[in-house]
Amino acid sequence: MRVYCPNVIPGLLQTQEYAEGLLNTIAEFQGTVNDASEAAAARVERSRVIYDRTKRFALLVEEDVLYFPFGDAETMVGQLDRVLSVMTLPTVSIGIIPRRTPRKVWALEGFLAFDGVQVQVETLSANITVTRPSEVALYLRAFERLSEMAVHGDGARDLIREAMVGLG
Asked: What does the pLDDT read at residue 83?
């Protein structure tokens, strides 16, 4: 699975508290029933798939995502600490696209690519499923270029720790 999130920590990495803060914000904006606590718990439960060693995950976020607070400082520090923890898993790659990196592709809408055969695109009002091979290939090419712009490993950890220091 390949995930690109330009605006939030990807759901697979979210803590209960961060997910609740995000889902509360969404419910308030959309004027829908607020079941953020239950929805966040379900999201966290589904995210356990990231520990499945038979699956591989590549996740990319824009650096600004580290600074978009959904919750208080303690929630954000806990969230960023979770990202640092998940980075140690052998089947997970997390890249962060630094703010000042020369762009090879512009910031896109968030998307998830599944095994190179399907892409789920997240918009404000809907999730769109893309299955046409030429369109899937376009998203995979975009992911590759975004990944080339990202820092991984120690570089990504440094950006996360920098964001954490700013919260404390």
From this structure: 98
CB 130 within 8 A of CB 142: no
The answer to whether residues 99 and 63 touch, using CB atoms and an 8 Å cutoff, is: yes
Q: Which residues lie closer than 8 Å to 117 by C-beta, 6 or more apart?
A: 131, 136
Strand ranges for 10-149 from DSSP E: 57-62, 92-97, 110-114, 118-122, 127-130
pLDDT, tens digit, 9 for 90 and up, residues 13-34: 999 999 999 999 999 998 988 8
pLDDT tens digits along 96-114? 999 999 999 998 999 999 9
List the one residue out of 136, 147, 81 whose CA is nearest residue 114: 136
Helices and strands (H and E) in the chain: how many: 5, 6
Greatest extent of the chain over all pairs of C-alpha atoms, in Å: 46
Global model pTM greater than 0.85: yes
Compute φ and ψ for 123, nearest 5 degrees.
-115, 180
